[in-house]
Amino acid sequence: xxxxxxxxxxxxxxxxxxxxxxxxxxxxxxxxxxxxxxxxxxxxxxxxxxxxxxxxxxxxxxxxxxxxxxxxxxxxxxxxxxxxxxxxxxxxxxxxxxxxxxxxxxxxxxxxxxxxxxxxxxxxxxxxxxxxxxxxxxxxxxxxxxxxxxxxxxxxxxxxxxxxxxxxxxxxxxxxxxxxxxxxxxxxxxxxxxxxxxxxxxxxxxxxxxxxxxxxxxxxxxxxxxxxxxxxxxxxxxxxxxxxxxxxxxxxxxxxxxxxxxxxxxxxxxxxxx
Length: 274
Fold this sequence. Notes:
It contains eight helices and eleven strands. The chain has helices at 18-27, 44-57, 65-69, 83-95, 110-123, 136-146, 193-209, 226-230; strands at 6-11, 31-37, 61-62, 76-79, 99-102, 127-129, 153-162, 213-221, 236-243, 247-255, 265-273. The strands form two sheets. The protein has a six-stranded parallel sheet with strand order 3-2-1-4-5-6, with helices on both faces. One of its GO terms (molecular function) is nucleotide binding.
């Protein structure tokens, strides 16, 4: 570590969550921002946004990611590139011996996620995906389980639904068929909300139970927004999971419109014990 600080390389610029993560790393006395970078063949519009963030933070922009990863003063990579590129780039960063701080969701496909997981395990680096596990309500739930205040955990339900967007525009009667995989995540006007927001609830459930998921069933739909329907992606969904020790968990995830909640949206957790 240079100057006894963790050097942080930023991948991803404006119009990502990197705008916030970079400021948090910069404010941490243990860290020092080193540079911004991306792949040589990164999309031109993304490179422009990357360079804008680099200019705002007064950081150098390194056009070749391989050169950036070769810097000895880089210890951590904050990874916020588009979902479609995250698996390959995450693998490359881990193989270069850099610790990973990953925006959520982890990756677009199971294959991409496994690329990251396997590279992290084989390289011995540390990785962390952004989640809500340190929120006060999640910490209280963890305490209730570990102290056996609720007895033995039998079931959980978690709602994470954002209050964003202008609802009431979803076409009535139009139904879409959910697919087991998707090739595209990044749209200008919308995101696949169960995929994007449901990860918060899933990560909470996994962290609280510390049990393996055995089966998953789910339903997605388009209740609120025309733009999601036009992109053939969901704005809401539910999942049911059966887990080890006969624990059942359910979640909802999505967005319901900016007037649906007085703050940022519903974040709610139910625990059922013996």
